[in-house]
Specification:
Elements lengths: L1 E6 L3 H12 L4 E4 L2 H7 L3 E5 L3 E3 L2 E3 L5 E6 L6 H7 L3 E6 L6 H5 L6 E6 L2 E5 L2 E6 L3 E7 L3 H11 L5 E3 L3 H22 L11 H17 L6 H11 L6 H7 L10 H10 L5 H15 L2
Parallel strand pairs: 1-2, 1-6, 2-5, 3-10, 6-7, 7-8, 11-12
Antiparallel strand pairs: 3-4, 8-11, 9-10
């Protein structure tokens, strides 16, 4: 049985795979198509670290102690269905709802939020920012099992236990709901949020804050967005990269969830609804 397998070898999945391999862990990267062929030659990393490491790769999951999901949110269902045997499942994906989908197929599920930053460029993982990964029980995990996962993962990455992983997922989703669609629509780097896009950003921040407050979470969304936009000023958001490549975005699992919750709770989320519709229109153009 594998120690850890990572389903979805995009930027974050490949970066974590590299880190686990360097730490001497028994890791398998599950990928498809061109990415699978690239990984057969090893994980090539650039940016904060310049290195290459050989990893085990496959086009289908194996039996594992821990399965980390790093696929795009719209691929979660098929990815979760493909994992036949895993003791523990952990999502480090963007957006809301992934853990609930995984929970249909796995008995013990952990939620995760990561601030590690990486991009995939011509098959190379560009390691753009060191971060922290927070994990917590989502379904069926005992406290000692969560600690076991943290103890295992900290050999490779900076990882900590989250007191309320649900709140952390929504906090990150709020930041993404402001930065990602605005940068995707305007084709600008994250730093533009603090400059020419701040007027629009503030309106989205306000709506997201109201939705979070109605859920019992008091979050200063403006402050969080400022912080992240400043730290990642040179980054091109994942949504912008998806739009540029003519690929489907994760707008449904991010902005879509704020629109859904806002309407359910009688909150005016028209600005979020507008950017949601604009991004969906951009997807249809390809």
């Amino acid at each position: 049985m594998r120690e850890v397998q990572i389903v979805g070898a995009g930027a974050i999945g490949s970066l974590f795979g590299y880190m686990f391999a360097k730490a001497g862990c028994d890791v398998l990267l599950v990928a498809r198509g061109r990415r699978l062929e690239e990984l057969k030659k090893g994980v090539v990393v650039d940016g904060l670290v310049k290195d290459k490491v050989d990893v085990d790769v496959s086009d289908k999951p194996e039996k594992a102690w821990l399965t980390i999901f790093a696929v795009k949110s719209y691929d979660t269902e098929s990815a979760a269905r493909s994992v036949r045997e895993t003791e523990l499942a952990l999502s480090v994906q963007n957006g809301i709802g992934n853990e609930d989908i995984i929970s249909k197929y796995a008995e013990r599920v952990l939620g995760g939020v990561t601030s590690y930053a990486a991009n995939l460029k011509d098959g190379v993982v560009v390691y753009a920012g060191k971060g922290v990964t927070w994990i917590g029980n989502w379904k069926g995990c005992r406290e000692d099992e969560v600690k076991d996962v943290v103890n295992f993962m900290e050999k490779a990455i900076d990882v900590r236990v989250a007191e309320d992983i649900v709140e952390m997922k929504w906090r990150k989703a709020a930041i993404n709901a402001v930065i990602n669609p605005l940068t995707a629509i305007t084709r600008k780097k994250n730093g533009a949020i603090l400059k020419e896009l701040w007027g629009s950003a503030k309106i989205l921040c306000r709506e997201c804050k109201l939705v979070l407050r109605s859920m019992g979470y008091d979050v200063n969304v403006e402050e969080e967005v400022r912080k992240v936009a400043k730290l990642t000023a040179e980054n091109r958001s994942s949504m912008l990269q998806d739009v540029e490549r003519g690929k489907r975005t994760e707008i449904d699992a991010i902005t879509g969830k704020f629109v859904e919750e806002g309407k359910k709770r009688g909150i005016d989320v028209r600005a979020n609804e507008l950017v949601y519709n604009l991004v969906k229109a951009m997807e249809r153009m390809h």
